[in-house]
Amino acid sequence: DPSRFDVNAQIKLFDMCVTQWLMKNGTCEGFAVVCDLKGVVLGHILRANLTSIKRGIMYVQEALFTRLISIHLVNAGSYMDRIMSMIRPFLNEELINMVHCHQNFTLPKDIPVECLPSDYGSLQPSFQELQDANIKRLMDYAEYFRNEDTYIADETKRAVGSVKTTDIFGVEGSFKKLDID
Q1: CA 79 to chain centroid
Q2: What would you measure as the largest C-alpha separation in the chain, in angstroms?
Q3: Contact (CB, 8 A) for 122 and 115
Q4: Stronger pLDDT, 178 or 12, i.e. the higher one
Q5: Whole-angstrom Cα distance, residue 133 to residue 136?
Q6: Where in the numbering of this chain does the CRAL-TRIO domain appear (predicted)?
Q7: Which of these, 52, 41, 58, 63, lies nearest to 10 by C-alpha position?
């Protein structure tokens, strides 16, 4: 249901999953992200705020505390090419080369089949079973994430001349709220 989609919540969920995995398993050589877009329609994309998308991309490029190996967008609709061309200016060359869109699922060369859900031909649990287990793990870490949300930067200690988010991301908001004099 596109009316319930919140891009900021999706970015936070991604961060929470990576954080929880690293806390439980320790560091690794990197992550290959497989995102199944089955059920995603253009309405989901239209609800995404461009500033939020830009912040999410910057987080992945500059602040993610592990290495990304690849990003596979599986069951990507025909609109995905237009979306990629829209966000391409925010992506650095390295990230552009990591993103792979698949209309149907074709096994990525850099992901062993035993790492994929049974929905894609492995002997692992199904996508739904893995998702349910992941939600349970996140709930086990709920107190940690609640506390983490209370940590904020003391902007009074920011060095003079340092970069602020408004310098990076430009004007806050969306075109829906644009006022013209």
Answers
A1: 18
A2: 61
A3: yes
A4: 12
A5: 5
A6: 1-128
A7: 52
Listing from the earlier edge strand, what are the strands of the sheet with 99-102? Answer: 31-36, 68-74, 99-102
Cβ-Cβ contacts under 8 Å for 51 (sequence gap 6 or more): 169, 170, 172, 173, 174
Burial 81-120 (b: 16+ CB within 10 A, else e): eebeeebeebbeeebeebbbbbeebeebeebeeeebbebb
Decide if pLDDT at 155 tops 60.
yes
For 93-148, the pLDDT digits (tens) are 998 999 888 877 666 676 788 888 888 788 899 989 999 999 999 999 999 999 98
Contact 7, 49 (CB under 8 A): yes
CB contact at 8 A, 64 and 18:
yes
Does the domain at 2-148 match CATH 3.40.525.10? Answer given as yes
Question: Is the whole-model pTM more than 0.70?
Answer: yes
